[in-house]
Design a protein that fits this description.
The protein is α+β, with helices and mostly antiparallel strands. The protein has three domains: 177 residues, no CATH class; 134 residues, 2-Layer Sandwich (Alpha-Beta Plaits), CATH 3.30.70.120; 375 residues, no CATH class. Helices cover 56% and strands 7% of the residues. The chain contains 22 helices and 13 strands. Strand 9 and strand 10 form a beta hairpin. Helix 4 packs antiparallel against helix 7, helix 5 runs antiparallel to helix 6 and helix 16 runs parallel beside helix 20. The longest helix has 57 residues. About 7% of the residues have low confidence.
Length: 816
């Protein structure tokens, strides 16, 4: 057996790649190029040798800051391009790589240019908005002044006020060349302006309270939306004119206008002056529109030219920042002429890494080569599995529970088949399986296009699991053919039924029963079971027993994998005192139950398996009577029960005592060690000579006891947990039947096209959102639990850590 196992060819995914700890001694002049080449290769995980230092104490902190500043400028360019409604080039211009210093200067020039253009555009836009508001106030306030003249005294003067937060309206001084004439203190005066529509009501109330009602407030909608310079959104505004009397009231009103952000504009009561000012304003507006258009065109031209290179520049800066971050993980030697690094490298990648380092030495014209040295490792290496598009999703399912320990058996090898199959056992319907298959094929057909796009979280998860969805749909079709369900409807696909009615009218087919008249249905369930009196008891019995068989088979697979783990790591104790008693205990009870199920199916016996298993423990020596399935069943049960009882102390006691004995033999005679002076400089404080392994027997025994109790109880609970296969399969089938019979068939009984269409729409909605989405998610989660808890806990430790090489391909936009 051992020779047969040794001769088996290794599987790529069964064990993680063999790793080695390497040391790099890199001359300073070739360090940057060497790290860049390693990033392109992506097969070396460097360790941080400066973990005790803060980021600001590292050697290349200034270069990292410069790269961060350049990233900020590139994000600023990207935001400006998006704000302008432009798009950066999908296929960027490929140019020879520029130096980092040149790119830094170029980005600074572009940033200054854009900031200046934004400042000028903002000033122009603000002036344009003020002139536009002035024009609206002039047009709307005229009607108020006409009505105001009915109340005004003959010597009424106009009051013109111009209140601006930034006093930028001086450019429009030509519009108000004539100063306001000083009004008579006893005359009627007014202030006109414009305010946001949402503030108009509160503004009017505040004016009324401040003036004690001694004012007249008129308002009118502006008629067009005006750009808000702060939010860059168009808002509705209202033109107002406030009539009042007295200098004190004027001061209060101006303060309130300033507080509410209302802009006040001078409006003369002379119509000839109004027309003259309106003409000047319209002239200025047309000039500003031309200037603004030219400014926007120029800014878009600059942004478009930046957009052609933006992707390339962002990629270059990200790579440079990653290189300097990695260089900060290396350590300077005492001469400050070399950088020393350590890292994990797969054994198969050693020649590639050495070749990349040699190229870096040649390309940097260094007189000293890079030293590549293999070291002995004390800690456990990282775990690295080489996956492809198909196997990566299944590996991620396993890694979500825990990353495999180094060289530990990988459950993903079996998860590729068992996960979609157990899902299909719960979801079996070949109509629903075809729907899932179409969705999976669409995702696979558009794989190249979708992989290049930035997807949402849900769509990204669905696209990442496209091959999982593919196998789930195929196995669902297979299990659906076994259950003979197509949207809960049975079909005579593989021939006619093996049953017929008792009479020609077939009136008692669903109440009295059917007569079997020929060989069984060749594949899957006979369609005649559907709707019969015994349909539910038959399906319950079938699916419950099938769930137990599948569960015991998968748990046995997990225990067998624990044997291969122990054999791989040369741990004979785990084989003799863990694998053997576990396989005996599980199969003495539930393996025997599985055997009884198969014998009952093959013989057609009417034995009650519940009674057999219960009285196997309560009365093992009693006669089985009608529940006897084969000769010698009673003595076999007694033997199996004794084996199960013996297996429990077999798991519990020997291993801790043997470990204690081995430990005492290993350190026997070491009670008297060599005296070492505390001031001896040749002895390191953490050296192996000083290291003494601690062994706590009570801790080991308690751990073994917990493990044994967990397995014994888990054997029962895990077997019962596999009954979820039966429960969810039954629930899915019954839900499908309810939607088909109570929605689709019920609506089809009406001779009304509208009712039929409504019934069809409800059936399609229920199928899509309940059966294809909610039920799919439910079956997926239950299959996930069966693998994580019931299967993997038999052999899988999952306490390793992933191999994370330094690779430019793994750098994302979030790293900016």
């Amino acid at each position: 057996m051992d020779k047969f196992v040794d001769n088996l060819s290794p599987m790529d995914l069964m064990r993680s790649e063999k790793m080695t700890l390497v040391q790099l001694i890199i001359p300073v002049e070739s360090a940057h190029r060497a790290v860049s080449y390693l990033g392109e290769l992506g097969l070396l995980q460097l360790r941080d040798l400066n973990a005790e230092k803060s980021p600001f104490q590292r050697a290349f902190v200034n270069q990292v800051k410069r790269c961060g500043e350049m990233s900020r400028k590139l994000r600023f360019f990207k935001d400006q391009i998006v704000k302008a409604g432009l798009q950066s080039s999908i296929h960027p211009v490929v140019e020879p790589d520029v130096e980092l210093e040149e790119l830094e200067i170029l980005l600074a020039e572009h940033e200054n240019e854009l900031i200046e253009m934004n400042s000028n555009s903002e000033k122009l836009r603000q002036t344009y908005n003020e002139l536009l508001e002035f024009k609206i106030v002039l047009l709307k306030a005229g009607s108020f002044l006409v009505s105001g003249n009915n109340y005004a005294v003959a010597e009424e003067r106009e009051l013109t006020e111009n209140v601006h937060s930034n006093h930028s309206y001086d450019e429009a001084s030509s519009l108000i060349e004539q100063e306001m004439r000083t009004a008579d203190q006893s005359g009627l005066r007014f202030i006109s302006g414009i305010i946001c529509k949402s503030k108009a009501l509160r503004f009017e109330r505040m004016l009324f309270r401040a003036t004690r009602g001694n004012m007249l407030f008129n308002q009118a909608p502006a008629g067009e939306e005006i750009m808000d310079p702060l939010s860059a959104e168009k808002v509705e505004k209202t033109v107002f004119v406030v009539f009042f009397s007295g200098e004190q009231a004027r001061t209060k009103i101006l303060k309130i206008c300033e507080a509410f952000g209302a802009n006040c504009y001078p409006v003369p009561d002379d119509f000839s002056k109004q027309r003259k000012i309106i003409r000047e304003v319209l002239s200025r507006l047309s000039e500003l529109e031309v200037t603004l258009d030219a400014s926007i065109r120029h800014q878009n031209k600059v942004l478009t030219s930046i957009g052609y290179h933006l992707t390339q520049w962002m990629s270059m800066v990200r790579r440079e920042k990653a290189v300097f971050d990695t260089l900060n993980m290396l350590n300077f030697d005492v001469t400050k002429k070399c950088l020393v690094g350590e890292g994990w490298c797969p054994i198969f990648a050693q020649p590639k890494v050495q070749e990349a380092l040699q190229r870096a030495t040649v390309d940097s014209n260094s007189q000293v080569g890079i030293i590549f040295h293999v070291m002995d490792a004390v800690e456990s290496p990282p775990t690295f599995f080489r996956t492809n598009h198909f196997t990566n999703a299944y590996q991620e399912i396993v890694d979500a529970y825990g990353v495999a320990r180094y060289q530990e058996a990988n459950p993903a090898v079996y998860t590729v088949i068992t996960f979609p199959f157990l899902f299909a056992v719960m979801f079996g319907d070949w109509g629903h399986g075809i729907c899932l298959l179409l969705g999976a094929l669409v995702l696979i057909a558009r794989e190249s296009r979708l992989s290049a796009q930035k997807l949402g979280s849900f769509m990204e998860m669905l696209f990442g699991g496209r091959y999982v969805l593919l196998l789930m749909s195929l196995f669902s079709i297979y299990c659906g053919l076994i259950y003979n369900e197509f949207f809960s409807v049975p079909f005579y696909i593989f021939g006619g039924s093996a049953y017929k009615c008792r009479d020609a009218t077939c009136s008692g087919a669903h109440s009295v029963g059917l007569i079997k008249f020929r060989d069984p249905y060749p594949f899957g369930l006979d369609p005649s079971w559907r709707g019969s009196r015994s349909e539910l008891p038959f399906l319950n019995s079938l699916k419950m027993k099938m769930s137990i068989l599948l569960g015991v088979a998968q748990m046995n697979l997990g225990i067998i994998l624990s044997y291969f783990n122990a054999r791989f790591f040369h741990n004979s104790l785990d084989i003799r005192y863990q694998f053997v008693p576990q396989i005996i205990f599980l199969n003495s009870l539930f393996g025997y139950l599985s055997l009884l199920i198969i014998i009952k199916w093959c013989t057609g016996s009417q034995a009650d398996l519940y009674h057999v298993m219960i009285y196997m423990f309560l009365s093992p020596t009693d006669d089985l009577g009608d529940n006897e399935l084969f000769w010698g069943q009673r003595p076999l049960q007694i033997v199996l029960l004794l084996l199960a009882l013996v297996a429990v102390p077999w798991m519990l006691f020997p291993k801790p005592f043997i470990l204690k004995k081995l430990h005492s033999e290993r350190f026997q005679g070491r009670n008297y060690g060599m005296l070492i002076s505390e001031s001896d400089p040749d002895v390191e404080p953490d050296s192996a000579r000083e290291h003494h392994e601690e062994f706590n027997f009570s801790e080991v025994f308690v751990h073994q006891m917990i493990h044994s109790i967990e397995f014994v109880l888990g054997a029962v609970s895990n077997t019962a947990s596999y009954l979820r296969l039966w429960a969810l399969s039954l629930a899915h089938s019954e839900l499908s039947t309810v939607f088909y019979e109570k929605v689709l068939q019920l609506s089809w009984r009406y001779d009304n096209i509208a009712i039929r269409l409504i019934g069809l729409a409800v059936f399609a909605f229920a199928t899509a959102f309940i059966l294809l989405m909610m039920e799919t998610l439910s079956a997926f989660l239950h299959a996930l639990r069966l693998h994580w808890v019931e299967f993997q806990n038999k052999f899988y430790h999952g306490d390793g850590y992933k191999f994370k090489p330094f690779s430019f391909a793994l750098i994302t936009d979030d790293d900016d």
